[in-house]
Amino acid sequence: MDASFADQEQLLRKAGVWKKVLWFSIAGCIAAPILGIGGTVLGMMRAFDTMGMSGGSDPEILAENISLALLTTLGGAVLVIPSVILLIVSLCVLHRLKQAAAAPPVQ
Q: Looking at the predicted structure, is the pLDDT value of residue 107 above 80?
């Protein structure tokens, strides 16, 4: 087996793995903020629903619902940061692998 052929095959395997990582990171970049915002909306809806049902505003119950809303926002933000970092790293690695595959073989 030719050494350059083995190198090309190894590059293709690495590229396949990093393409999967790329798609996983894209999914994380999309899903994390959506889940965070969805939780925020639900928490605020519960807070306003509690206010409407009680006819007033019990600070303890409101704080509990608003806390839930803020925690889901934080969760989305915490999940999106590593996803973005992984997205950037995977794009850089795939770019370098593409450059390595396009380079003429060393003899």
A: no
Asked if 104 and 7 count as a contact pair (C-beta separation under 8 A), the reply is no
Q: Is residue 7 part of a domain?
A: no
CB 47 within 8 A of CB 68: no
- Look at the chain and report how many structural domains it folds into: 1
Question: Rounded distance, CA 33 to CA 80, Å?
Answer: 7
Region at 106 (left for phi over 0; alpha for psi -120 to 50; beta for the rest)? beta
**Does residue 106 fall inside a structural domain?**
no
Predicted structure pTM score = 0.75
CA distance 79 to 33: 8
